[in-house]
Amino acid sequence: MIRYGDTIREIAKKILEEKTVDLIIGFKKGTLPITTEPVLIKDTQNSDQLYWDSFCNMNLANYLPKRGEKIGIIAKGCDSRNIAVHIVENQIKREQLYIIGVPCKGMIDRRKIVSFLGGKEVREVTESDEDITIKGEGFEHTLKKNDYLQNNCSTCMHRNPVIYDAIVGDLVEERKDPDPYDDVKEIEGIGLEERWESFSDLIKDCIRCYACRNACPLCYCPTCFVDESGPQWVGKSIDPTDTMTFHILRAYHCTGRCTDCGACQQACPMDINVKTFTRKLNKDVLDLYGCEAGLSIEERPPLDTYKPDDYDKFIR
Amino acid sequence: MADNPYLPYPVKIQQIITETEDKNLKTFKLVFLNKEDEERFTFIPGQFCEISIAGQGEIPIGIASSPTEKGFLMFTVNKTGVVTRFIHNMKEENIIGIRGPLGNWYPWEKMEEKNVVVIGGGFAFTTLRASIVYMLHPENRNKFKDITVVYGARSPGLLLYREEIAEWEKRDDINVHITVDATDDPNWPYNIGFVPTVTEQKITTSEDSYALVCGPPIMIKFTQPVLEKVGFTPEQIIMSLEMRMKCGIGICGRCNIGDKYVCKDGPVFSLAQLNELPKEY
Amino acid sequence: MSDKIIKKEELTNILKALKETYEVIAPVKENGFYSFKPFKDGGNIDLNFTNTRLSPKSLLFPQSERIFEFNLDEKSKDGYIVKEHPKDYPPSVIVGIRPCDAKAFKLVNINFDNPEFKDPWWVKRMEAMTFIGLGCNEPSSTCFCTSVGCGPFNEESLDVMLFDLEEYFLVRALTEKGEKLLKQGRVDKDVDEGLQKKADELRIKAEKKISSSVPTDKLKEKKINDLFNAPFWDDVAFACINCGTCTFLCPTCWCFDIQDEVTKTVGDRIRNWDSCMFPLFTLHASGHNPRPEKVQRVRQRFMHKLNYYVDKYNTGVACVGCGRCVKYCPVNVDIREVFSLMNGL
User: Fold this and answer.
1) Interface confidence (ipTM) of the complex
2) C43-102: pLDDT as tens digits
3) Are A267 and C259 an interchain contact pair (Cβ–Cβ within 8 Å)?
4) Alpha carbon of C320 to those of A208, C9, C147, C155, C242: distances in Å?
5) Is the dihedral of CA A45, A47, A53, A57 positive or negative?
6) From the candidates B47, B265, B280, which should be mutated to test the interface with C, based on the most C CB atoms within 10 A?
7) CATH architecture of the domain with residue range B108-240
8) pTM, to two decimals
9) Which domain holds residue A116?
């Protein structure tokens, strides 16, 4: 995966030189080990900053709405699906984009590394196809990448980009695992009261910083419902009712649009797995409509369509 | 100020006057519920208060009455957001709160012995009204040389304090130039034209003068060069700014322009001061 | 008062003794991260941490706090009158606060307790607090305290400092408040020369371990508009997603909002943390927003810390180098790089 970097830089340089695009949105190496930073590159002399490794976990589709330029964008499977969602929802035009697809074997969860190390800090990291080696003061560990993937990556069924104009490597084999929703089923299996308790427990550390919302490509509303003042739908304190209202309503706004990219969870400074809510809704949409978000640029999300011949009477 | 600077003084709405024909501006005359609060509340024209409505929140509003007017405070409120919409629906005798006086004031000491030019547009005439009433008070009038007022609105029905301004117009110790952008009233006795244009016609010297300028950004943008043309330096042009505020006492951190808080270091700034600050307002 | 020494295992008993007079607050590990919580006799205290996830600022300045209350019953005598909500300010001890977080209280104190206005809740809590600091033997790679006027054993904002000497704590009273507290906790055994020396070495060693630094020497001479109009803000801000993580985790970010909340006919006026990262922060009721774009909001955060605050108070930057924003920014916006850009302009 790390070798993709060279190809990304090559393609980027070429499309900038040929003026196929005005700019590239990609990743650059982070200032800390095991981090990366989204970057915007406008000219070829900076294109060498573009970088790739298994910590490019943010969803770059988040940086597309409202842009008017011709954009080259690096896209993993999930990013490409969110780009497709943007196209369907008229947030960006297909013609504006030159999608540099990255077949993805999963991103490594920084937190799993941190937790593995206890209090120790990573000072250096190198990776190969299957392993990463982390070094710090007085330690060196080589770990199997697959054991430290983000949870959403371990269950991802669409690792290859669904739309792209160039691809940086051979497509990877998609998982055959027919059911990635074990975690959701576990919650579905418990009683209502217990379930509510587990949700309340899930968000009890939430500080309302909105990192989950802001990292999410789906949350591009000009004014989020939590920010409305007339009427004010949600209180602004950290009252558990308000916090829960935010999370549940936000999740519902994502229904049928979420690609389970994991950006929300990765962004959370309080380690809250906010995907718990959206994953249940993803599963429901799959069960009820047979749909997964962002697999096509033609099809609108199931909860965003109206058909006069809908089989449900109440909507006709 | 109260011991707790966040705690409003309770006041009663004594009178509500609808100022403009679109009913978007109402003047609220407020009286203190407690005598000791009233005694404590001393202010200087240019200052503002946080008007506090239990259950709705607070809004910063300039004090439209002059300290020479005793027994009440006056605020003219434009219906815009949550709190202002609510107060517009309140009735006389209702209880609200005020916190203040807050912020700084027009530079009265500097303006003594000087000509004062007051330029206002639209609903930004509230603390200017306070200033004019203050200057015209018999105790104060001889502290200032000529007082000239240019006040405009889009139409006659949108002028604030119309009767009062008409009274000033008749006096000989103040020059008042009322103007409207347009009117279909054939008997309109005053000027027709934008504030910058009327300013250009009426204000021909900057000598020994200070200009107090309040109005919508577009008016300020075009009035400024007119004043500069007749020699007003940035130090002689005084403006009052608006900003979203919460605490009103320079603590909550939201109303800054550069290192200045509009609520505490302002709202009154000279153009010279503003020129040193980022254009972020 | 000379430095004292206690055995590590004595600490719990000392804190138990202090609990008779003080509310004792200590670092506790829950859900995988550390935060400051009331100390329980069972011994939930855990001093084996580098920095708590959230800074301890909420102890003086809670994220949400009811400040006033009122009723909306027009028939009631005090209907619609906003009243103070009675509060207690019991004497409290924060045990194990890091020197950087304590210094942050000092920096923020200038804002809440100034010659013209005093924030009553902050001021009363500050008066009631005693800070027992814990020097950092093992600073993190993201710590840059030594270059922003602080350090792993900086004593300036503490009442007592603890030096972690493996089996012992060297205990140093730094203020009268601190001395009083040590008397109350019966910490009276003088330290011997050997351990005293060990503590000094520990401090020097820890300072050397700080591997990260930022330049600040030229910030004071920079002109506000030169920095404001600098060419680098677009690049700095690109990755930023405008969440409140940096501001909420930051020990020196103090901006707040005031909101009324009503249930039927009773209500509260509540003060909540706010963030300059949020568009709503500066949005006027008219719809005008002086900072409508992300880049302006990002600039505000850094300008406030590294320019406005510096110019206004003349006490250095509004940053203590704790590294929280560096570590937890979801997109790696790194304040250390902004220091370099601003200082180097």
Assistant:
1) 0.94
2) 789 998 889 999 999 999 999 999 999 999 988 999 999 999 899 999 999 999 999 999
3) no
4) 24, 31, 9, 13, 22
5) positive
6) B280
7) 3-Layer(aba) Sandwich (3.40)
8) 0.95
9) 110-148
